[in-house]
Fold these 3 entries.
Entry 1:
Amino acid sequence: MTLDPLDGQRATVTTTSASTTVADLVASVLADLGVGHAFGVVGSGNFAVTNALRARGVPFVAARHEGGAASMADGYARLSGRPSVLTVHQGCGLTNAMTGITEAAKSRTPVIVLAADTAAAAVGSNFRIDQDALVASVGAVAERVHGASSAFADVVRAYRTAVHGRRTVVLSLPLDVQVATAALPPSPVRVDAPRPVRPDTQAVLELVALMEAAHRPIFVAGRGGRGAGREIAALAAASGALLATSAVANGLFAGQEFDLGISGGFSSPLTVELITGADLVVGWGCALNMWTMRHGSLVATGTKVVQVDDDLAAIGAHRRVDLGVVGDCASTAVDALDALDPLSGTGRRGYRTREVAARLAEHRWWNDTPTPDLTGPDATGTQRIDPRVLTARLDRILPTERVVAIDSGNFMGYPSTYLRVPDELGFCFTQAFQSIGLGLASGIGAALAQPGRLTVVGTGDGGFLMGISELETAVRLGLPLLVVVYDDAAYGAEVHHFGGSADELAPVTFPDVDLATVARGYGAHGVTVRALADLEPVRQWALDPQGVMVVDAKIADDGGAWWLAEAFRGH
Ligand SMILES: Cc1ncc(C[n+]2csc(CCOP(=O)(O)OP(=O)(O)O)c2C)c(N)n1
Ligand SMILES: [Mg+2]
């Protein structure tokens, strides 16, 4: 292996059968621990470690921008349940990845970032930055491989923090350390997962007492409730509670008779009415933040609020709660079900009345009646299609076995509400940093995590053009991917938020771009949609999706998304 002369000494690596290089050791330990896909952009500093991962059977996707690679790693880990790896070049490779790393860190996605770093002695290197300080500033965990003797422990520590501590960890690999000779690690490497946090018995009894006293309980599950859907739903059935999720946990209770879908800005009118009517709200691994609770307006005065979370710091972090239960969601639901009074349990209907069942059966979602709810008149004109009408039709022509990945912007309510998802592994919602431009790449990661499904990326024209370099990656991988661009030739969120004169809006409005032609240039299928009839090629393609299809939907102005004004209240 040779190194960039500015970054450390040139070195030739020789290993004996009982030894290897540190770069190789890092890769072999991570491969042994069972990391899923790796993503990255390869330069001299991460060339060896990336190829060592590949040599050990960890599939690697070469992205076109480190930001894209970071979002792919994020999307993959969210929807596969396995930790992912991101590998980047020292300095500029890491800075390019920072927005995606920040989103992952704020979402507590277990991504292990292998970031090459300049040798400590290379003080004049162009690539030199304080990587640890940069990483810590966005809430990711800065770790490093300190030397050959500590390398094994350093990698295991990073893995445990990422996977068991649910953090995004950046493991810096100084170039001189990477090429040092290290003893072969033990194989196979085993790291036991910690046991789930069992809740305190008294706290469970208090939760059960509140449930038994409630007439109209609602359970809202968040990210921490994912994986515990069965246990939470069983308790809900026994206690007469309705079920809902935060946006990130969308799909967790899909198919349940008393599922209300997303709680918050994307809620249907019936969901809002039923949540507001609750007398007990129990959050399961859910922050109950301003988005999920619509700035608290979904919780009526006098309604009791309980939060169950295995992280003490999460309890009460966003709102006042009457009871906090520190415990793993599945364990807490099981313990509460055991403690529920069997007599009160048998005949207990709670909020699951015949009337509620009938109303849900008749019209639960925005899009479960022949004509979808539009919250206003159809804005379709001769040249532009109403985004709600477009999305409602897509929901009908696309296979139900799907993954929906959402970029950020005014448009995002349309795919989040009108496109139904089959389960908790069908939705990739990267909004913890509210950055635009992450949707396409996180959708690629999601597609790799769920290869049997069609992935649908919903994005604005602004976010799409910001992240477009990964269209080449998607085409190269041959993924079955539909990219729906809600094209208003504007940063619509800003237009609707600020309003103002044409001159004031000049920085946020743009000339029309023929994105279908652009997409074809990348090797994707491209279709321009101005009316429902233009969706025919998409319907045909969706019968047996091959490769990437980009829909450039020239959308009409529906006056700004209904949830956006709500969202801006929080800023
Ligand atoms: C990286 C980043 N830069 C700027 C913003 C501010 N911002 C929020 S929404 C938005 C416009 C997005 O435009 P587009 O993707 O076309 O979606 P639209 O709002 O038009 O539906 C911008 C610039 C942001 N959230 N993230
Ligand atoms: Mg736009």
Entry 2:
Amino acid sequence: MLEVPSTDDLTDDTLSDLSAKFETASAGEIVEWAVERFHPHLCLTASMTDAVLIDVATKVEPAIEVVFIDTGYHFPETLATLEDVRRRYGLNLRIMTVPHTPVPLWQSDPANCCTAAKVFQLERALVGKLAWMSGLRREESSTRREAAIVSRDRRGLVKVNPLANWTDLDVEGYVADHDVPVNPLVCKGYPSIGCWPCTRPVTQGEDVRAGRWSGLDKTECGLHDELLR
Ligand code: SF4
């Protein structure tokens, strides 16, 4: 049986020190640390806006588990990007599917739709894991400005955001330099892409995530709970 590595040494203070140290590390170095510490008890969640973190992470560990939560409400372009990325990288892909409901949850129960369609699926994906990674970046919105590179989530798992301090220009540069797949909706004014009922294009000067749940008093779906503390 696979031995589960101990994380007893990773106190909150240690994680905070690591996070500060990683401010000057490359995303690849941060992923290397996470892979050395946690793989295979580690996964990466992807929204398929672009494949930057997937490109960085699979260069470190090609077999890293990539989780995509298929809410059932994605744009066709997002599902096409998922397939492109899966083929390009030969991903160890785990698609979390949401039980079908006769009336879409975003219509019948919009207040709980994200919890049922996203957060519950993430909970399932994280069973047996010690840590997970996301491509969350501080520049995306005001709610993400304080995001740490390494922290602990409410489950007690280690959360790693290797791109936390990347700017939009950093992402554009990496995409160009490494020919990384990008969701075609990005070029149509959707710099942050979620489910189609809850995503609109943004206008110049708006936050990257201004098109998510536009008009509602909501900025996060609840996946990144460490932002809400
Ligand atoms: S983003 Fe909208 S459609 Fe998608 S899970 Fe959340 S509420 Fe439902």
Entry 3:
Amino acid sequence: MIKVGKQAWDVMVAHAEANYPNECCGAMLGTTIGSIDGGVKQVTLAEAMENSYDGAQGARYELRPEDLLAADRKARAAGLDLIGIFHSHPDCDAYFSKTDLENSCPWYSFVVLSIKGGKFDHANSFLPNADQTAAEKEELTWPKS
Ligand SMILES: [Zn+2]
């Protein structure tokens, strides 16, 4: 399961709402208690990133590899790990699309935030399998303000 702390959650929602009606993206940093499979991932920091998709960004996002590397370095410097990636679905539910699956990687959690009419609606987290053919839903908690 993955638990997003208040500081990180506020960054994620603000970034998703600010980029509406486009998709936003970013990284989640934190710690894992227990094993990767059965443990609890605690997200303490979120890094807002620019959607670098070269085209209509209403239903697509792309992360720059160098932004992800920078986030990974920042995490290590703070004694944290890069736990996952988040992105938003403007006026769409928080499901994991075929494109999301193809662009995923199995060792991260993928949190999708549904933004409807410019405001946060709901979110889900997904864990892609090793061959990126399916992503299972992961229990996600966030601070209810
Ligand atoms: Zn998506």
